[in-house]
Each structure stands twice: as C-alpha cells, then as structure tokens.
Amino acid sequence: MSAVAKDLTHSREAVELRPNLYWIGAMDPHLRSFDIILKTANGTTYNSYLVRGSEGVAVIDTVKESFQQEFFSRLEGVADYAEIRYIVLNHLEPDHSGALPELMRRAPQAQLYISVRATSMLKALLKPKQGAFDYTPVRDGDQLSLGDRTLRFLHTPFLHWPDTQCTYLVEEKALFSGDVFGCHYCDNRLFNDKVGDFRFSFDYYYAHIMRPFKKYVLAALKQIEPLPLTLVAPAHGPILRDRPRRYVARYRELSSPGFMAEMTEQERSLIIFYMSAYGSTARMAQAIYGGADEVDGVRVSLYDLEGGEVGPFVDLIEQADAIAFGSPTINGDAVKPIWDLLSSLAVINLSDKVGAAFGSYGWSGEAIRMIEDRLRGLKMRVPEGGMRVKLIPTEEELAECREFGRRIAGALVGEGESKGKVIEFEDL
Asked: pTM of the predicted model, to two decimals?
C-alpha cells in the first residue's frame, strides 16, 4: 500500500515497509507540546512495528494509551493476536508502552522482552490493577528467532532513559531505533523521501532529548555505524528509508565537539560570563580573566551577557571545562540574564565541569551564593567559594580577583589544593 494514498489520521490500515514488515503506529497531528519542554508545531507520531516471520509475529513498541484503538485496528489488519509470539519494548516511556496492558490481555501467550535496565521501571509504570507481566530481560547482542527472521538487541542506555535499547532485524538490515534518530513530526506520507522538510524537527529533537547524553550517543554510534542499514524505523517521526546513513552521520556531527578541534588535547577552557550594573562586576570579571590567563594550558574567554544571546552561549558552555558567572546583587537576587543562561543549561551535560561565581553588591550579596547553589544543582564542581566585593572594588580586591582567577584555572590543570575540592552550601 502506498503511504501517499491514505490519510493515516483517518485510515486505520497498516503500512507495509517491506514484505511482512509493517508500521502499525498512530498519528497525533494536533499535539503542540511534548513532555512540557518540546514544542511540536507538526504534531508527532507514535511508531509501532509488526514483523512477521515463518514462526510467528513480533510487535515492536506500542503507542500512547489514548491512541491504542488506532494501533489495534492496524494490527488486526495484518495479524491475529494468537500469532503474536513476542512483544519488544525498546523504551518504557508511556508514549511507547501505553497500549501494552491491553495488548498483553489480547495476546496473553506473547512473551515480553525488555532491556535489563527496564525491569524496575516496568513495575513502576504499570498500575496495580494491571497485574504483573511475565517478561524476559535482554542484554546487548541477545537474539530472538522468528524462523526466517532474527531480531538482535543493541544496548543503548540513556538515549534518553536508562532502559533504552535498539532492535535490529538482521535479514532486512532494518533498525528499530526507539527515540534515537526520531523527531516530533507528523506527516501522512510517513517516509522521509515523501514527507515535508523535517530537518529542523530532527535537529530540534536531538537538541532537547539527546544532547544531554552525548557521550551515550557516541557509544551507541559505535554499535550502529558498522551495521548494514537499509531502513531506520524510529519511535517518532518519519521512517528513514532513503539514505538512512545520512541521519546516523548527522548524529555523529551533532555529537562531535567543534571548538575542541581548535585546542590541543592538553589545553583546557574557561569561560567567564558577567553582567554589570555600574561597572564594578565588569572590573572584577576582567581581573579574574587576567589572573586565569596567566595559567599555562588554559584558554580563557570573557563575555558580557548584555551583548549576546543565550543560545550560542549554551553551545560554548557545553564544550568548556570551567565556567564562571558574575552578577551584581539586585533586590536580593542575581540579574535575570544570568538566570536565563543557567536555566538553559538543562539540555547539556555539566557533570564534573568546574563552576564559580563572583560579583559586586551593595547590601548583602545573596546573588553569589544563589548562583553557586544552582551550579551544584547542575552537578558542577565548585572548588572555590564565590568572590564578593562590596560596591567598587579596590586595587587590593582586584588583586584578590586575579588570584581567584588563577585558582580556578589552576584547578583545571592540577595546580594547588583546590583541585577536586567542593565547597558545600552549608559551609558558606
């Protein structure tokens, strides 16, 4: 059946991807927000797949519970429930597992296969009235036979939950990738060579879902890139049948640091951001910059937040080894651009980066401790207590700022006692 010939938001027919391989998912074109943080201007799809082998049928992922009747209608068009031997969940989030309880009720003989990390999550996701399911946890490289077809499991944790895995249909060279290579883009034509331009949605999805887990993306790519691929079938968005390796290559590009190519392996980077009301915090920032720049092996950058937008700074922070934030204290708080930047950092991994805070104040200087608390909440190391100066910094205080900068930079290259030290909030 042609994917172009049917309006899949109204039709309940399955779509054949290959002989005896079907899409049985659901369309959600009116969705405009996903998991609160993602905007979905084109809606989304909940992709589920059915594989028929000579010795039975496997269903790979289900759909959101509110769309399960659409899912069951498509499934019933290509298989009887009694034929289903296996149900595979690559990821247990409710938009993939919502129809599982009803599917297990209709096909009680089917065996459920999930990753070893998904076992505890399965119990938490299912309501007590739904009872316990018999399931088999699988590890990387485990296989299932459908007679003339073989499913192989790839362990790909934290893309984007701890439980995630991919499933590879060996004979068809087809990868059921879960959330990897997916996007929130709903189009009746279903296939990447038929739908509209979804490049923005693909990159946007990566930025908000996969970007915080880049190291896990790179680990997964080591498993996926060697595979022969004729089809990549993600859990959301278009099915990638035309040159699927382009999308694998795009993940490699998005996950590879750019600035690091400009630095040697031995160099470390420190970025200093600041906002200044009357110039005092700016003078502190410049002194900290000067001190840090004296440390060999550390490349230091200085940015005034008043002159830049948040988005590009997030990219810089992701590739930096240390970040210092400077803010005056106004009405007992740090200034809004500092919070705007800090609130944008949830999309990247900051674990074990060095953080620091500084600023001038007129009354009590709460901003510095508030920033430090946020840095710890982002899992950054804070090896130095914040640098605070009342009103206009003196030459002696600027000298202390320069030393502060030297110590922060020194923590990156193993100088001084501050390396690895963390100042706890209750000690301040």
From this structure: 0.77
